[in-house]
Amino acid sequence: MLPVDFHSHTLFSKCGLHTIIEMLTEAKARGLAALAITDHGPKLESCTPSTFWDRLLDPVVGIRLLKGMECNVISDEGDIDFPQKFLKYADIILLGLHPHLPRGISAPKNTEFLLRALEKNPFVDIVTHPEDEAYPVEFDTLAEYAAGHGIALECNNSKILNKRVSSERLLALLDACKRAGCRIAVNSDAHAIGEVGLDESVRPLIEHAGIAPELVVNRTAESAFAFVEERRGKKVTV
Ligand SMILES: [Zn+2]
Ligand SMILES: [Zn+2]
Q: Less CB within 10 Å around the terminal CB: N or C of the chain?
């Protein structure tokens, strides 16, 4: 079980099954110190209300709510769909390639597309599921960029648990992270309470890859909160 989970979805995402309260309550019962609610960005027709950002404060006693979003790249110029007026409330911002994009694009092109967005939006903290075969990216290029900019690449439990990605593919990503020395965030990507905080499907692969524990930003609650605070400096608005 993760001490802090940086990636989960609620009913505000079209794909989520539960409320924020239900997700947090389950995470607390499982012993997590914090759960990030990271519903999809508006490009995927999610409906996170403004009150999530500017009014909701730790609604379940005993567990910290980390406010976040899993954003999308929405232009060739590197724009993403995070509503920037809420940047000051955000704890963690994720970015991933999702089904609004065409499939069958080459890895070099997808990588260029993704790196342009990371360059333009330095407040993105974690790149989600880079191992997704529908939107291939060059692992070494991405891992080197991430290492140079303090970004973490995600090791996604849900994709392995639900057999959407092969173990070999995730191991290839982890090997690239190891070569580049870039940081890794192990996340559940839970869409239902049953998956909150899970890391059991990827834990053996991380060990098999020989990833140094200090590269995993959420190896402990303390390291996870330190990552959030370190990255907060990237979210300063002018
Ligand atoms: Zn995603
Ligand atoms: Zn997700």
A: C
Spell 16-32 as b/e; 16+ CB within 10 A means b.
bbbebebbbbbbbebeb
For the chain, the straight-line distance linking the first and the last C-alpha, in angstroms and rounded, comes to 38
Residue with token string 């967005």: 117
Burial class of 101 by CB neighbour count within 10 A (0 to 12, 13 to 18, 19+): middle
pLDDT single digits (tens) 162-195:
999 999 999 999 999 999 999 999 999 999 999 9
How far, in Å, is the centroid of ligand 2 from the Cα of 33? 20
Contact between residue 142 and residue 115 where contact means Cβ atoms under 8 Å apart: yes
Give the number of other CB atoms < 10 A from CB of residue 15. Answer: 13
* The model's pTM: 0.98
Query: Domain limits at 24?
Result: 4-235
Write out the residues surrounding ion ligand 1, Cβ under 5 A: 96, 128
Task: Convert 114-144 to b/e letters by CB count within 10 Å (16 or more is b).
Answer: bbbbbeebebbbbbbbbbbeebbbbbbbbbb
We report the CATH number of the domain holding residue 104 as: 3.20.20.140
Measured in angstroms, how far is the CA atom of residue 128 from the centroid of ligand 1? 6
| Strand partners for 95 | 71, 127
Count structural domains, the chain: 1
CA distances from 134 to 4, 107, 122, 163, 190 (A): 28, 10, 25, 14, 20
Ligand of minimum distance to the alpha carbon of 13: 2
Q: Left (φ > 0), alpha (ψ -120 to 50) or beta: where does 163 sit?
A: left
Alpha carbon distances (Å) from 224 to 2, 4, 91: 10, 7, 11
